[in-house]
């Protein structure tokens, strides 16, 4: 086991024990099962990441007989589950998800739920999108694609999953910054958008690695860049668009998901859960779960750091959309 994981587990174990005995030394929390409201269907990437995290908590961290279960509450592009989470008790027995979709829904005026109504507990995933084109496209680099788009304004068709979605914002971010002009074609989901690239219906799409990995492995599509300013360990040969153009150096379009609790939950409950999930995230089991979906492990930056990141993402999305 890597030294980082050993240190994380030892530190989390000590802090969790302190939190558990926090109120006068009584071991009162948790005394019953904890539920996580997942606003997406069972078997999806977010659902499987949640289950991977909760099932990776080492033996002995939770009291005997206490489990963490997942309650899939779907609908409204995640807002049905988000509303149920918002209206749940703050006693520490109901957790939920705060992610890029919730922030985008707020920016788009589809909800008044704000990320800062919740306290982040763990980061399940945080990674940039891939800028994808057909394997036989007439450009092999992001710079060549940009030059092609400049020479053909309005002719480059970009597959996306709808107005205000992360896939469209990914393309719009560098379209606006570099003075390009795309024509957007809507698809029902990233997989269909990728299929559109393979079929030649559109020239480019942007999405996370999970839905693209099959076609990338098959060699039917290629990744020109990622929507970030630094390369990733998962795709070290794929440049970050921010390293190629100064105009893009401050742009980070990321798919991110946090486990969270309502922000008026007891402090000792927050500490206990953060440390339990820190131990889970340090396990080989959880890393293997993420790797199966081409997701990179993400470091949890602490409550303040996570909220600051969410604020920055909100402000950036707002600047693009509004």
UniProtKB/TrEMBL annotation:
Keywords: Signal. The keyword Disulfide bond does not apply. SUPFAM superfamilies: Periplasmic binding protein-like II. It holds the Pfam family TctC. Gene3D superfamilies: Bordetella uptake gene, domain 1, Periplasmic binding protein-like II. CDD domains: PBP2_Bug_TTT (cd07012). InterPro entries: BUG, Bug_dom1. Residues 1-18 form the signal peptide. PANTHER family: BLR1237 PROTEIN, TRICARBOXYLATE-BINDING PROTEIN. Belongs to the UPF0065 (bug) family. This is Tripartite tricarboxylate transporter substrate binding protein. It comes from Agathobaculum faecis. The lineage of its organism: Bacteria, Bacillati, Bacillota, Clostridia, Eubacteriales.
């Amino acid at each position: 086991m890597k030294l980082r994981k050993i240190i994380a587990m030892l530190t989390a174990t000590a802090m969790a024990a302190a939190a558990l005995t926090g109120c006068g030394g009584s071991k009162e929390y948790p005394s019953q099962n904890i539920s996580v409201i997942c606003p997406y269907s069972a078997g999806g990437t977010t659902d499987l990441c949640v289950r991977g995290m909760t099932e990776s908590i080492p033996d002995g961290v939770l009291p005997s007989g206490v489990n963490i279960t997942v309650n899939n509450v779907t609908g409204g592009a995640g807002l049905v589950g988000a509303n149920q989470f918002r209206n749940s008790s703050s006693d520490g027995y109901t957790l939920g998800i705060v992610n890029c979709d919730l922030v985008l829904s707020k920016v788009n005026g589809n909800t008044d739920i704000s990320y800062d109504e919740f306290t982040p507990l763990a980061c399940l995933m945080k990674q940039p999108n891939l800028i994808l084109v057909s394997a036989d496209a007439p450009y092999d680099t992001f710079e060549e694609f940009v030059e092609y788009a400049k020479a053909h304004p309005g002719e480059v068709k970009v597959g996306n999953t709808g107005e205000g979605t992360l896939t469209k914002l990914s393309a719009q971010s560098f379209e606006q910054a570099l003075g390009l002009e795309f024509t957007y074609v809507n698809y029902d989901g990233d997989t269909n958008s990728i299929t559109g690239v393979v079929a030649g219906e559109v020239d480019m799409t942007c999405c996370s690695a999970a839905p693209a990995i099959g076609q990338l492995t098959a060699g039917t599509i290629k990744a020109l860049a990622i929507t970030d300013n630094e390369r990733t360990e998962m795709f070290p040969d794929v440049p970050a668009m921010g390293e190629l153009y100064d105009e893009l150096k401050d742009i980070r379009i990321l798919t991110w998901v946090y486990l969270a609790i309502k922000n008026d939950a007891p402090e000792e409950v927050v500490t206990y859960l953060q440390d339990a999930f820190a131990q889970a995230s340090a396990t080989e089991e959880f890393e293997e779960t993420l790797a199966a979906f081409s997701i990179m492990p993400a470091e949890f930056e602490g409550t303040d750091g996570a909220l600051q990141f969410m604020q920055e993402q909100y402000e950036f999305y707002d600047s693009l959309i509004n």
